[in-house]
Amino acid sequence: MNKTLSTDMELFAAALSQATVAVIQHTADDIPVFIASGVIEKYTTHSVKIGATSYLRDESEFRIDERSSRLS
After folding, report:
1. What is the side-by-side order of every strand in the sheet holding 47-50?
2. DSSP per residue over 3-69, as a string?
3. Among 63, 59, 15, 10, which Cα is nearest to 37's?
4. Residue 65: pLDDT band by 50, 70, 90 thresholds?
């Protein structure tokens, strides 16, 4: 089961534990599309940086696999 990270505390815990985070964005038809995955390098109130790319928090979902994470 995937857990969606939405709060600063959840993103901080994922970054601190170096959990692999999947980036999901939705199409105009609200279809979820996998964009990328990796470790969170930095986050702000507006964006999350994974690898060399920053993703806007209001346009993306950030998910981790609860089975392989200690954040559940």
Report:
1. 2-5, 61-65, 20-26, 32-43, 47-50, 53-56
2. EEE-SHHHHHHHHHHT-EEEEEEE-TT--EEEEEEEEEEEE-SSEEEETTEEEETTT-EEEEEGGG-
3. 63
4. confident
pLDDT digits 0-9 by tens, 8-57? 999 999 999 999 999 999 999 999 999 999 999 999 999 999 999 999 99
The rounded distance, in Å, linking the Cα atoms of 52 and 63 is 18
Q: Which of 47, 50, 46 is nearest to 18 (CA)?
A: 50
Distance CA 46, CA 58 (A): 7
Q: Which residue bears the tokens 């985070």?
A: 21
